[in-house]
Amino acid sequence: MAPMSARITGWGRYAPERVLTNADLEKLVDTSDEWIRSRTGIRERRVAAPHETTATLAAVAGKRAIAVAGLEPDDVDLILVGTLTPDYWMPSTAALVKEAIGNTRAAAFDVMAACSGFVYAYATADAFIRAGTYRNVLVIGAELLTRFLDFSDRNTCILFGDGAGAVVVSASDEEGGGMAGMEMTTDPDGAYMIWLPSGGSKSPPSSETIRRGEHYVRMEGKETYRYATKTLATSALKAIERAGWDPGEVDLFIPHQANIRIIESVAKGLGLPMDKMFVNVDRYGNTSAASVGIALAEAVDSGRVQLGDKIVFVAFGAGFTSGAAAVTWTADPLHGKRADSVVPTASVRAPVDWDSVDPMPARLMAVLAERDGVQVPLDDVVPGEPEPAHREVLA
Length: 395
Ligand SMILES: CC(C)(COP(=O)(O)OP(=O)(O)OC[C@H]1O[C@@H](n2cnc3c(N)ncnc32)[C@H](O)[C@@H]1OP(=O)(O)O)[C@@H](O)C(=O)NCCC(=O)NCCS
Prior knowledge:
- By secondary structure, the protein is of the alpha/beta class.
- Helices cover 29% and strands 21% of the residues.
- The chain has one domain (5-330): Peroxisomal Thiolase, Chain A, domain 1.
- It contains eleven helices and 13 strands.
- α3 crosses α4 and α7 (221-243) packs across α8 (260-269).
């Protein structure tokens, strides 16, 4: 039977321990801390350890969201993972996450909408629940972008970082709450503005594609910037309109964290002050499909979201995709404390007859090893999520 509403009941995030600063990047490419901060707002980003994968990051964030929702892993009926950096082309990362979190009964699949992945996956979860098909859906945005970056290309390698954010969406027999309005768009005109050329059927991997560096993210920064500023504002407005709200009524926007200037321009476009925009791009960079999930969990846990608040998720990404969701918050923010009991590690079963090569980009590893003195062994155990190096909030 269809429920009265589909509400967010759990949230969680995980960011790998190791920090890559702008000063580290100065050693890799011709750039400066000043340039990166002033053009993007990014001060640092996280880099996954060699033993971590997109699925392990996703599993930790997912386990935290399940704990916050007060559920057990087997209560989850469907697992959706938004990612553009899956562990493998197949099986899906969601299938690996299912096993890693100890769920035996859920259906699981990935949602590929690049940086809009979390919002698209959340909209999918909402639809399944409202249709009465499932009662608890785990939605995760997870990304391990540092393994798909050319650390000699200053146009891209300064922007992205690793991490995962998750929510549990649950059927409720109470009316109201949850998603009140939604908008999703895809504009193939922008198909080649951010893309990763090789590895798919058009250009299967070969020594030649690797020689050409086609296994790395490519981006036309200016065109992407122009699209982002326009579409974030229009997508958010559509979702707000469908909710029957006025933009001024929204308590907090959780925008995709790509660039502080893009977020500022959206605030300006909507005629809203920057304190209505949640910002953490300074500490994580662009974590693609993970960014809205990480930002949401951080916003709730830091007291920026209260019961009954009107919040808006809005994202854009390769494709060009864009998505926004206007959401009435119904969960007690104090439930976030339940995530503290979750050990921040996860392991994904490896095949018995196969071992991967060292996954870390050599240039990145050289700079980190020079800075930290030691290389993290492949079988290192992830310690607790550390305090970020600093907590300044950008003006
Ligand atoms: C990438 C981005 C930060 C570049 O900022 P910008 O203000 O547009 O900068 P420009 O591309 O005009 O470059 C200005 C100059 O800085 C240089 N530059 C580019 N990257 C640089 C870097 N990392 N460090 C130093 N200089 C750099 C350029 O070569 C250019 O030099 P020139 O004037 O001598 O030609 C910006 O376009 C952007 O954020 N785009 C959107 C990207 C995005 O969000 N992608 C993810 C989508 S989900």
